[in-house]
Amino acid sequence: MPTLPRQDLDHVLEHVGEHWTDVAGSRVFITGGTGFIGKWLLETLLWANGERNLRVRVSLLTRDPARFQREAPHLATHPAVALCQGDVRTFNFPEGEFRYVIHAATERSFAPTTGHPAGTFDSDIEGTRRVLEFARQHGTRRFLFTSSGAVYGKQPCELSNVPEDYAGAPSTTDPGTAYGQAKRVSEFLCTMYARQHGFSALIARLFAFVGPHLPLNENFAVGNFMGDVLAGRPIHIKGDGTPYRSYLYAADMAIWLWIILTTGTSARPYNVGSAEPLSIAELARLVANVANPATKIEIAENPQPGAAPARYVPNVNRAASELGLVERIRVEESIRRTMEWHGGRRSFT
Q: In terms of Cα–Cα distance, which of 121, 118, 130 is closest to 90?
């Protein structure tokens, strides 16, 4: 796995700026460090550690250290990183004080089964409770929880961008909402632990992103579209192409998360994402235009006459007004950089 582009590492280094000094000399515990979010946080922290001489040490929880060493040796073998083997629900606590904890681990969403009637719900909550117990016992001052826009449930079509104070929620009778329900309960647990035990709980509600490390063959539309183009296939849209999403570049995401961790207000959720909507069909055309305009786009279904398109787009005014966070890298450039990182056959200039 290649390292992140130097321009992205420097972008994060510059725009987190003076806030890097907040973590200087500390130990940081990270769950989910082998996933998309975690890799960006780990690699940008290690870059800042070297460039700013922060003297930070990182303990990274992973179920499979050997696999991580094979996939990302530049991260796994870094002298500032210690790998801790274990499941987020049951891991043994490393010793010592950890001023900062980042809980970015989440179970892959799966439907309820006979053996797991609550699906993702139970495992996600058990993991959050375990990490909170670790924070309680190890001198943590600031605890970052990567939640999700799924906590809002279905976004009303008349609401163009959903704000943090929107009172909606996932349906309690829809088994498909296990992921969003678990994030809501986890936010509550973070708030209560922080209140009772005197640390700050920072809650980042994540939406959709694009950037290096994004899988091209999983349940991410933009990743799937880029994978189609890089493989020389037509872009295939499974639905009717009308739902609206937005995409924040991962380098900007990392800036937002570091600043939320270091300066955000405890138990005050912040949406993390782009406020600029794109329909899935528009996204497919944009990917094709950036990479290969001749790419054919196939849309499996026709739009329902009169039906309002679904939306999943955040309002990010709180992050902007309170923390000065802005989107700096536009989506076209985000797609170009991501495809270059994935080794596209074109230069995408």
A: 130
Closest listed residue to residue 240, CA positions, set 177, 310, 294? 310
> In angstroms, rounded to a whole number, what is the distance separating the alpha carbons of residues 41 and 52?
16
Number of domains present in the structure of the chain: 1
148 within 8 A of 205, measured Cβ to Cβ: yes
One DSSP character per residue, 71-89 reads: H-HHHHT-TTEEEEES-TT
Q: Which of 48, 29, 31, 40 is nearest to 1 (CA)?
A: 40
Q: Which residues of 284-302 are buried (b: 16+ CB within 10 A; e: fewer)?
A: bbbbbebbbeebebebeee
Cβ–Cβ under 8 Å, residues 261 and 310? no
Angle between helices 331-341 and 280-291 (to 10 degrees): 60
Residue 112 lies in a domain: yes
153-170 pLDDT, tens digit per residue, is 999 989 999 999 999 999
Dihedral class, residue 14 (left if φ above 0, else alpha if ψ from -120 to 50, else beta): alpha
- With b meaning 16 or more CB within 10 Å and e meaning fewer, what string describes 46-63? bbbbeeeebebbbbbbbe
292 part of a folded domain: no
Q: How far is CA 74 from CA 44, 59, 77, 85, 249, in A?
A: 12, 15, 6, 18, 22
Joined together, the tokens standing for residue 242 give: 């009308």
What's the pLDDT tens digit per position in 288-344? 999 899 999 999 999 999 899 999 999 999 999 999 999 999 999 999 999 999 975
For position 167, which CATH number holds? 3.40.50.720
Query: Residue 51: which domain range?
Result: 6-210+248-273+313-328
Report yes or no on 59 lying in a domain: yes
Lowest-confidence segment of 126-135, 280-289, 340-349 by average pLDDT: 340-349
Gap between the Cα atoms of 132 and 284, Å rounded: 40
Nearest to 221 by CA among 87, 229, 97: 229
